[in-house]
Amino acid sequence: MPRAEITFTSPTKLKTRRFALLIAPINNTTGARRTWQRLIAGDCGITSTRHLGFEYSNLPSQVAGIVPIGPKASGGWTASEHVTATEIRQAALFAQYSLAASAEALEDAGLEGGKSLDPDMTGICLGSGIGNLSDLYETSVAYNEGKNYRKIHPLFVPRILINLGAGHISMRYGFRGPNHTATTACTTGAHSIGDAMRFVQFGDADVMLAGGAESCIHPVAIGGFARSRSLATDFNDAPEQSSRPFDRDRAGFVIGEGAAVLVLEEFEHAKRRGARIYAELVGYGCSADAHHLTAPRENGSGALEAMRKALKHAQIKPNSIDYINAHATSTALGDAAENAAIKSLMIEDGGVVKASDINVSSTKGAIGHLLGAAGAVEALFSVLAIDQGVMPPTLNLKNRTSDFDCNYAAREAQQRKIDVALTNSFGFGGTNASLCFRKV
């Protein structure tokens, strides 16, 4: 029998397909615009978890970036304002956040309800790191107490599946294009956006909704990260000071929840319909540390490789980068490794002459670390930084050691011209991703 032959087209031959970035999300204050305005104003969304119950008061870390309960009009979350009664029953909280973020994304892009989109050429790329831990915990407890499988809800399995965030979006709007879910710890959101870019690049879709979602505020999740000594524990009585990227006194990250979704659209497709284009996604780089379960290499070599690959893909040199939105979660080792990588990229690769000319900030000081949603939220912030010419602040950066000598927009936003922005995401297992955006 003759053998089947498979041939491959190099991605470099497909670079005529450019990417318009349209926008939308939700995180720990609902709505993209409201969140951005609070961020630029220097507000902090991190609060105490003690009001959630005694089980939270016994944990070493008692702070989190919590989605506030309340009416949408005042910046709160009420599920019935965003999802139907059926979706509330069928969808876990992280998937509900995904639906809300997607609805806002489509509305902002002039595509409310998915109108005028070809369903076969419209897809979703959305993942989560943990998803909704409460469903797993509560079902396990109920089963253990009764030793009866009837204690398990008929929708238990669909509610815990990570791909159901993307699945519910496709079912709501009838999008039949690529339906893809990455779950790569804290790199999930960035991987989702980068993978969506490639679906468009290869002609599998004209429009992709891409991002990440997380609803992980639960004693088991916080306890687990606390046992691995990853969380901030020194500021339980001052939650707004607990996440302090690049600061001398940083001692762990602050867990957060929420979602963010971007609309990626093939450039000419967006132009034909007169869409508002916020920025262009021009580069995506991935790498692995191949080093440790939870810790990066101290020299940040994995992060550096991801950034270099993103710039190579974008065909942009380091001296063109105006702003870097850092992953920097407020951990001692992680922030130092990324800082070293950024300086290597920007100085050794010919970007700038001195470190003080490097513009980098971490928005986690304001909202905490949203795990699988972090990369998507920070991609959104990077795009808005380009669109509005504002470098978001790094909150709580009051004292620096000598190695931290870049411009971090400490505690206050900075007005500046931003034509090219880079955003980083790194996760447990040593997985790294970097996205490069450019002003149109």
UniProtKB/TrEMBL annotation:
Domain Ketosynthase family 3 (KS3): 11-439
Domain of life: Eukaryota
Pfam families to which the protein is assigned, alphabetical: ketoacyl-synt (PF00109), Ketoacyl-synt_C (PF02801)
GO molecular function: 3-oxoacyl-[acyl-carrier-protein] synthase activity
Keywords annotated in UniProt: Acyltransferase, Fatty acid biosynthesis, Fatty acid metabolism, Lipid biosynthesis, Lipid metabolism, Phosphopantetheine, Phosphoprotein, Transferase
UniProt similarity note: Belongs to the thiolase-like superfamily. Beta-ketoacyl-ACP synthases family.
Protein name: 3-oxoacyl-[acyl-carrier-protein] synthase
Organism: Knufia obscura
